């Protein structure tokens, strides 16, 4: 493999010291005197008509500057189906939905006034699960979906395109996969299993809650500061919704305090815009409380999945039929792309010739969903990978051997019928083989420690392509300092994933210079930075990286051109390193960057060259439309793969368990920053285990979410994590910066399935729901007659 | 009631005009621009607002500012180049950084109060904070490395210091 | 962030505190006593507590006492934090209950009195106080009363308007008696209890107090009686004790009624084995 100087090294995050000394200014840390505060009034019903919204008492609170209700702005917005009122008017569709807002001098005053607003509700029958939503006689969450507009960018392509709500139902979209012939596949199978899996919605709970500041200037310019991953989409949405020139909308994104997909959805900003407008354009801040962040803002999707799998007696998978009812919640938003992506990669990394999948995004009276780490794969893998274990068990095969036997290979095709090769597909077999060693697989999958305690291991394999819509890209600009150091300007957003640092490594590598001489701006400003598709889908490094590399090439070209004149050496005999341009054959003939980056002046006053500004742009090639029925098309550039294992210690009496060890072996292509990659994967694994064992909303029978605080919505705490082990296989991808693959999400995808496989073995029952709480395990065993 | 308070923060006297119902977190952030302590839940659950009061970690979202009068407060802004900060950087014990001030304050107090902290004590203390980005293993390594360093320093003969 | 404001008082004597309360109450300020302040700040922001005046009892010397030398009575001030109570090791029975509440940082703030007077249904710190037949010292405008825990803590702390808890007194003999405590949670290490069970062995019989099982913490003589019936098998004793649970078992987001009973059964078994030297 190629040796690099800076790439692959564990270069510390550029913003490290700011983060450990409390100096980083996240959005909520910028406080400007004179800013007004906005508080939302949110619905206490999940489905109800709203009558009069009485604001009389609220207006009486001194310091209240404005109150806006849904009736004032009867607008529908959305980035896929435009189905979501800015503030609910006539009807609320989920518990926690914004109905009105108060703009006041302080947050305390705004909260106080909000509590004084009275809303008349007329409760409606609630759609309390995706299965209920699918029933013929289900109440409709939206009466007339056929009348909704579909976002113009969304109506043709990619995961966010080709959206077709089904009138008269609660189906926001249906994405199919038809590969081979499913009947034939099952006919060829000796063994068929069919199982149902489910989990409720949950939440990202990034520790920084969502927050947006908006100010409207006299010139009509709209200045937005936000904790978001989507500055450009936000700009577009604001401009379209409120009919403002896009050039007049400026979005600033400081460092973001975690997201995991939560901050891809644009929600608070349009509200804050309206709030600012109501107070003459003054700067306003709308910040979620934890409760609002969990329930009012978009959440992690829920799923009810039917998995039918067919296999020959000797363990060759033949057919898979999948039916997904996703709990997209009350509004389509980004739930639709998630459910489409789930279909595209539905099989996991296995060779299966006959694939049938229908992935339905269902409207329910639950909070609406958006991206979550894994983007549909984490969810699907839970069902598919559990079924793989059930199948292997039925065949009497070792689940690892079974996976090896069916592992997808170059030459196979994806469910979307893309021909796979060594570059666009990671090496899942190699991942599995290394996993086997790391988890001591051959020492036994189940070991009895005592009468009560048993240790078990479970595994899973997952894969993921990035799913950018066609035509997405990024740009980068490099400028130089007088000492030859470089500044990178690009719109990738730092949410903790370390992208910014990796970009400086790329520049340093290409320029053969010290990474300490490369700087990158942490804030993103749409007015200054070249357009960048959202920071999501593990594609940021891919897009920005390619743009940055092209900018480096551009800068090198300019540097060499100037140096050639001064050194009197032809351009193609020149090379750059250590902030110098030099002659390849005699390096002593050289000139420092510092002398030429702003142009060079000869003693006689003549000049050579001009200021060097590197410019690079990139657009992902080769992505196509995806057929809504068959799923045929190219959804992204490459599939990263990962094999994972979880070892647990289970107490057969109490049905409690401890997480002992969790291992990931990922083919992530070339690793750009070793520690960065390792900790990304570890963090994602931890989130996956937390999700699988503890998280998930609980609703009452009226659809009210009961878990809106960390006091009730429990996430993993320190001390409960297992030992984490992460290894990489570096199988480079063509066309990606230094051959790297997406990475930020892979750690999470197989965790729920692996821990469920492990616990199913331990508890001697098949666990098909999340979260895997001791109570759920106990109940399942009780039903199965395992315990009394 | 609105009153002028004097608080002892990071060894300095700070004066602020506050409502009696303001929490210490409100005052630190909004009145004194000490924004290192974060609002993650304002409900005592996440620990991102942790500061030290007389050397002990407290969740500043659950403490009234008036209640902090007379206590020696330390915020992340008061830590300069401490071993814990170094360890967090070197062990990659943060990603987005939002929980980090609170985690560091807690961990810093822990190693001061319990130089011989066992895994059990570490768990007892550190489970007061939530981090959603890291796996906690990095944080564990960071704290352990400081404990180890301290132990090493203590063992070294004094005259060689 | 509390959206309402209040006046804050920090009296330095019991008399001052009760007089302040009386006066503020008459002025319509709906005063409340404040100790650790963790409940007022967190429930207040959710609009579940409201007041125009708080009276902080932390400045009252009697509320900060921690003493066990004289008379072999352990005295614990209501304003001590749970961490202080635990670290003092003054009464392990109590300390071990305190150290299971909330998380470590919160325990640096939550006080014993605050937990006992809490609106939140668990009030776990009362368990050892029920088991040890403790005495509560409360102060009101009419003076100081000393009452048995069984008189003043019925499901919750039953104070007269204007009264506050000053101290708890526990007979020193309880410092050395064998006890068993277990807090079972849904899955997190930091959470409210599914059940917290504390059992104390006095002479040869077992006392039992439980929080989280019903809508309030309790000590049950009926359950104790069944558990102490050594004529029958341990399983039978537990079965019978379960029939004597004094109030409906709760079903909530942390666990169903059936599951709580399942957990209770196992925990009782562990307690009996631990305290009784009984074989499983
Ligand atoms: C993060 C967190 C986790 C928690 N976990 C648990 C748990 O696991 N188990 C559990 O049992 N509880 C738990 N609690 C609840 C906690 O014990 C209560 O909120 C407790 O009341 C707070 O004590 P405090 O001293 O801060 O009370 P404060 O907020 O000062 O007061 C609480 C109440 O008690 C009254 N009060 C206070 N002192 C006195 C006094 N001396 N005399 C009379 N009345 C008084 C106040 O008027 C108020 O009504 C948790 C709380 C938090 C914040
Ligand atoms: S903000 Fe204080 S604990 Fe979360
Ligand atoms: S680093 Fe993001 S929450 Fe801890």
UniProtKB/TrEMBL annotation, chain A:
Q: Which domain of life is it from?
A: Bacteria
Keyword annotations of the record: Molybdenum, Oxidoreductase
Query: Which molecular-function annotation in GO is an example for this chain?
Result: iron ion binding
Under the heading PANTHER family, the entry gives: ALDEHYDE OXIDASE 1-RELATED, XANTHINE DEHYDROGENASE
UniProt cross-references to Pfam families, sorted A to Z: Ald_Xan_dh_C (PF01315), MoCoBD_1 (PF02738), MoCoBD_2 (PF20256)
SUPFAM superfamilies this protein is in?
Answer: CO dehydrogenase molybdoprotein N-domain-like (SSF54665), Molybdenum cofactor-binding domain (SSF56003)
Q: Which organism is it from?
A: Peribacillus asahii
The name under which this protein is listed is: Xanthine dehydrogenase family protein molybdopterin-binding subunit
Q: Acyltransferase as a keyword? A: no
Domain Aldehyde oxidase/xanthine dehydrogenase a/b hammerhead as annotated: residue spans? 21-125
Q: Does the keyword Lipid metabolism apply?
A: no
TrEMBL record, chain B:
Functional pathway: Alkaloid degradation; nicotine degradation
- Superkingdom of source: Bacteria
Domain 2Fe-2S ferredoxin-type residue range list: 3-79
Q: Name one Pfam family in it.
A: Fer2_2
Which keywords, in A-to-Z order, does the entry hold?
2Fe-2S, Iron, Iron-sulfur, Metal-binding, Oxidoreductase
List, in alphabetical order, the Gene Ontology terms for molecular function in this entry: 2 iron, 2 sulfur cluster binding; metal ion binding; oxidoreductase activity
Kindly give the PANTHER family that the UniProt entry links to this protein.
OXIDOREDUCTASE WITH IRON-SULFUR SUBUNIT (PTHR44379), XANTHINE DEHYDROGENASE SUBUNIT E-RELATED (PTHR44379:SF7)
Listed name of the protein: (2Fe-2S)-binding protein
Provide the species name: Peribacillus asahii
From TrEMBL, chain C:
Record GO terms (molecular function): FAD binding; oxidoreductase activity
* Name this protein carries in UniProt: Xanthine dehydrogenase
The species is: Peribacillus asahii
> Which Pfam families does this entry report, sorted A to Z?
FAD_binding_5 (PF00941)
Q: Which UniProt keywords apply?
A: FAD, Flavoprotein, Oxidoreductase
Q: Where is the FAD-binding PCMH-type domain?
A: 1-175
Q: What is the lineage of its organism?
A: Bacteria, Bacillati, Bacillota, Bacilli, Bacillales
């Amino acid at each position: 493999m190629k040796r690099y100087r800076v790439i692959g090294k564990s270069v510390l995050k550029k913003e490290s010291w700011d983060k450990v000394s409390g100096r980083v200014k996240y959005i909520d840390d910028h406080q400007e005197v004179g800013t007004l505060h906005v508080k939302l009034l949110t619905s206490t019903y999940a489905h109800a008509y709203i009558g009069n919204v009485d604001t009389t008492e609220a207006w009486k609170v001194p310091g209240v500057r404005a109150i806006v209700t849904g009736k004032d702005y009867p607008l529908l917005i959305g980035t896929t189906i435009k189905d979501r009122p800015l503030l609910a008017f006539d009807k609320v569709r989920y518990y926690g939905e914004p109905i009105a807002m108060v703009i006041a001098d302080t947050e305390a005053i705004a909260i106080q006034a909000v509590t004084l607003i009275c809303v008349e509700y007329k409760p409606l029958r609630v759609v309390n699960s995706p299965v209920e939503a699918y029933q013929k006689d289900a109440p409709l969450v939206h009466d007339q979906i056929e009348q909704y507009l579909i976002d113009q960018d969304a109506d043709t392509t990619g995961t966010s395109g080709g959206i077709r709500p089904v009138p008269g139902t609660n189906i926001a979209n249906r994405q199919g996969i038809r590969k081979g012939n499913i009947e034939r596949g099952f006919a060829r199978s000796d063994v068929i299993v069919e199982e149902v899996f489910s989990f409720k919605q949950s939440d990202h709970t990034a520790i920084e809650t969502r927050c947006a500041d908006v100010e409207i200037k006299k010139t009509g310019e709209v200045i937005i500061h936000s904790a978001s991953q989507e500055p450009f989409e936000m700009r577009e949405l604001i401009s379209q919704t409120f009919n403002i020139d896009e050039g007049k909308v400026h979005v600033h994104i400081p460092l973001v305090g975690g997201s995991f997909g939560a901050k891809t959805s644009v929600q608070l900003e349009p509200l804050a815009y309206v709030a600012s407008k109501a107070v003459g354009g003054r700067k306003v801040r709308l910040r979620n409380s934890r409760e609002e962040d969990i329930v009012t803002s978009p959440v992690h999707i829920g799923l009810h999945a039917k998995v039918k799998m067919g296999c020959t007696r000797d363990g060759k998978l033949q057919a898979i039929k999948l039916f997904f009812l996703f709990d997209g919640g009350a509004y389509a938003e980004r739930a639709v792309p998630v459910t489409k992506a789930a279909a595209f990669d539905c099989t996991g990394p296995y060779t299966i010739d006959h694939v049938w999948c229908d992935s339905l995004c269902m409207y329910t009276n639950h909070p609406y969903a958006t991206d979550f780490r894994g983007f549909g794969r984490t969810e699907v893998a839970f069902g598919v990978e559990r079924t793989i274990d059930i199948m292997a068990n039925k065949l009497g095969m070792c689940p690892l051997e079974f996976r090896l036997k069916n592992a997808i290979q170059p030459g196979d095709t994806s469910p979307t019928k893309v021909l796979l090769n060594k570059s666009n597909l990671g090496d899942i077999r190699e991942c599995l083989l290394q996993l086997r060693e790391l988890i001591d697989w051959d020492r036994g999958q189940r070991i009895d420690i005592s009468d009560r305690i048993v240790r078990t291991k479970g595994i899973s394999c997952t894969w993921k392509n990035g799913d950018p819509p066609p035509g997405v890209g990024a740009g980068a600009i490099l400028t130089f300092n007088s000492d030859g150091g470089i500044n990178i300007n690009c719109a990738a957003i730092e949410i903790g994933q370390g992208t910014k640092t990796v970009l400086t490594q790329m520049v340093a590598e290409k320029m053969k210079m010290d990474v300490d001489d490369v700087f990158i701006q942490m804030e993103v400003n749409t007015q200054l930075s070249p357009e960048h598709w959202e920071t999501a889908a593990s594609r940021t490094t891919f897009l920005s990286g390619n743009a940055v590399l092209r900018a480096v090439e551009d800068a090198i070209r300019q540097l060499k051109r100037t140096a050639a004149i001064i050194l009197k050496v032809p351009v193609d005999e020149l090379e750059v390193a250590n902030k110098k341009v030099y002659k390849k054959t005699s390096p002593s003939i050289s000139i420092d960057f510092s002398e030429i980056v702003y142009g060079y002046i000869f003693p006689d006053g003549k000049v050579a060259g001009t200021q060097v500004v590197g410019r690079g742009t990139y657009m992902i090639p080769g992505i196509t439309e995806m057929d809504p029925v068959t799923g045929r098309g190219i959804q992204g550039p490459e599939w990263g793969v990962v094999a994972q294992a979880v070892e647990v210690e289970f107490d057969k009496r109490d049905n409690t368990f401890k997480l002992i060890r969790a291992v990931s072996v990922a083919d992530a292509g070339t690793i750009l920053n070793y520690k960065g990659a390792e900790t990304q994967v570890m963090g994602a694994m931890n989130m996956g285990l937390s999700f699988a064992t503890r998280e998930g909303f609980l609703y009452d029978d009226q659809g009210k979410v009961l878990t809106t605080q960390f006091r009730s919505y429990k996430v993993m705490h320190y001390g409960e994590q297992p030992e984490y082990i992460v290894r990489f296989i570096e199988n480079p991808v063509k066309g990606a910066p230094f051959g790297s693959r997406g990475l930020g999400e892979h750690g999470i995808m197989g965790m729920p399935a692996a821990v469920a496989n492990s616990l199913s073995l331990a508890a001697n029952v098949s666990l098909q729901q999340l979260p895997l709480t001791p109570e759920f395990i106990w109940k399942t065993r009780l039903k199965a007659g395992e315990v009394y | 009631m609105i009153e002028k308070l004097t608080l002892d923060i990071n060894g300095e006297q700070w004066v602020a005009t506050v409502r009696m119902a303001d929490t210490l977190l409100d005052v630190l952030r909004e009145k004194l621009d000490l924004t290192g302590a974060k609002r993650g839940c304002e409900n005592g659950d996440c620990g991102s607002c942790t500061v030290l009061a007389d050397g002990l970690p407290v969740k500043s979202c659950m403490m009234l500012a008036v209640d902090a009068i007379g206590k020696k407060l330390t915020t992340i802004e008061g830590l300069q180049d401490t071993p814990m900060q170094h360890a967090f950087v070197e062990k990659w014990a943060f990603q987005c950084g939002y929980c980090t001030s609170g985690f560091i304050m807690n961990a810093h107090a822990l190693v001061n109060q319990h130089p011989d902290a066992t895994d059990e004590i570490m768990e007892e203390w550190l489970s007061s904070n939530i981090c959603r980005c890291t796996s906690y293993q990095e944080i564990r390594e960071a704290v352990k490395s400081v404990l180890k360093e301290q132990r090493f320093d203590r063992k070294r003969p004094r005259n060689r210091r | 962030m509390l959206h309402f404001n209040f006046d804050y008082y920090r009296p330095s004597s019991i008399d001052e505190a009760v007089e302040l309360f009386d006066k503020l109450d008459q002025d319509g300020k709906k005063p409340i006593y404040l100790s650790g302040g963790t409940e007022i700040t967190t429930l207040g922001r959710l609009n579940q507590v409201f007041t125009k005046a708080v009276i902080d009892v932390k400045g009252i010397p009697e509320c900060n006492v921690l003493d066990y030398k004289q008379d072999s009575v352990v005295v614990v001030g209501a304003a001590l934090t749970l961490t202080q109570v635990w670290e003092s090791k003054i009464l392990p029975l109590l300390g071990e209950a305190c150290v299971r509440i909330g998380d470590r940082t919160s325990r640096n703030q939550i006080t014993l009195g605050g937990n006992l007077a809490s609106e939140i249904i668990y009030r776990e710190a009362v368990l050892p106080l029920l088991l040890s037949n403790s005495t509560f010292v409360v102060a009101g405008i009419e003076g100081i009363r000393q009452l048995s825990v069984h008189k003043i803590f019925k499901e919750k702390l039953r104070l007269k308007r204007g009264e506050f808890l000053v101290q708890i007194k526990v007979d020193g003999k309880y410092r050395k008696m064998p006890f068993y405590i277990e807090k079972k949670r849904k899955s997190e290490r930091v959470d409210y209890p599914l059940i917290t069970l504390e059992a104390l062995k006095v002479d040869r019989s077992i006392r039992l107090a439980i929080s989280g099982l019903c809508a309030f913490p309790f000590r049950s003589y009926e359950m104790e009686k069944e558990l102490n019936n050594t004529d029958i098998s341990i399983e039978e004793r537990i079965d019978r004790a379960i029939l004597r649970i004094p109030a409906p078992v709760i079903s909530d987001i942390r666990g169903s009624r059936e599951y709580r009973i399942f957990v209770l059964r196992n925990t009782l078994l562990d307690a009996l084995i631990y305290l009784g030297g009984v074989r499983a």
